[in-house]
């Protein structure tokens, strides 16, 4: 597997592999010799800069007499996080957040997408399944409050046949009635002097720590800088005040659905 930026999942998996390696009193070179693979590859797995395959995880579990612990970790932290690498760190924060904020300028927010829309938008079954699993955060026993602002173009962008788009719009209407979902539509005129060129997400924890995710043309970046997070939060607050309120947003969505 290629070298990648470490994520919370690959880092946790690598730490577990390293614990078992140390318990077995093997150097990285000695462990690599059992496959054989290069010591560099073992080092990348331990450092979280390579996404380990299931076959390699099974061999590591066998060679290190881990009793299934490495396979379990692989399922939890590698297989169980099918998010694009750019999103994976943010997705971890999203799972435990008490409040989620989102501005979407291209597509419907991933947490609000109906299954047919998901499958029309994403390239394969694995990606679609991952998106749908991610939506379960809104159904936790104590779910976060999601405040989502959708650019009006996201409702009109024809990413699927008309029947799928109508179903997606009705799905938004249904979700917007949930107590923990506040959905607003931003019209083109609402931006005025605001420079919102990309979609972004903010996940707030119970202790008020905030993690952001800013989409880019080639994926996106997880944001933890207080300065950058504050700028995104400020942009969200201004646009939230300008966008249609919840009831008017539902009326707007109904009108667009009738046009489909």
Automatic annotation (TrEMBL):
Pfam families assigned to the protein according to its UniProt record, in alphabetical order: DUF5753, HTH_31
Domain HTH cro/C1-type: 17-70
Molecular function via GO: DNA binding
UniProt xrefs under CDD domains: HTH_XRE (cd00093)
InterPro entries: Cro/C1-type_HTH, DUF5753, Lambda_DNA-bd_dom_sf
Protein name as it appears in the record: Transcriptional regulator with XRE-family HTH domain
Species, as recorded: Actinomadura namibiensis
């Amino acid at each position: 597997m290629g070298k990648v930026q470490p994520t919370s999942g690959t880092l946790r998996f690598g730490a577990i592999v390293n614990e078992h390696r140390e318990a077995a009193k093997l150097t990285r070179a000695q462990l690599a010799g059992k496959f054989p693979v290069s010591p560099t590859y073992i080092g990348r797995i331990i450092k979280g800069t390579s996404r380990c395959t299931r076959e390699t995880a099974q061999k590591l579990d066998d060679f290190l007499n881990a009793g299934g612990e490495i396979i379990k970790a692989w399922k939890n932290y590698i297989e169980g996080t099918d998010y694009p690498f750019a999103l994976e760190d943010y997705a971890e924060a999203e799972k435990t957040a008490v409040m989620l904020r989102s501005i979407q300028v291209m597509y419907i927010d991933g947490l609000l997408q109906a299954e047919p829309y998901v499958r029309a938008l994403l390239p394969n079954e694995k990606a679609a399944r991952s998106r749908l699993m991610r939506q379960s955060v809104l159904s936790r026993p104590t779910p976060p409050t999601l405040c989502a602002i959708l650019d009006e173009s996201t409702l009109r962008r024809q990413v699927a046949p008309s029947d799928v788009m109508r179903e997606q719009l009705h799905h938004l209407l249904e979700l917007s009635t949930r107590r923990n979902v506040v959905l607003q539509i931003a019209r083109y005129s609402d931006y005025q002097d605001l420079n919102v060129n990309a979609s972004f997400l903010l996940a707030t924890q119970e202790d008020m720590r905030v993690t952001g995710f800013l989409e880019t043309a080639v994926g996106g970046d997880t944001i933890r800088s207080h300065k950058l997070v504050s700028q995104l939060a400020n942009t969200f607050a201004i646009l939230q005040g300008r966008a249609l309120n919840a009831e008017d947003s539902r009326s707007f969505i109904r009108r667009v659905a009738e046009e489909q």
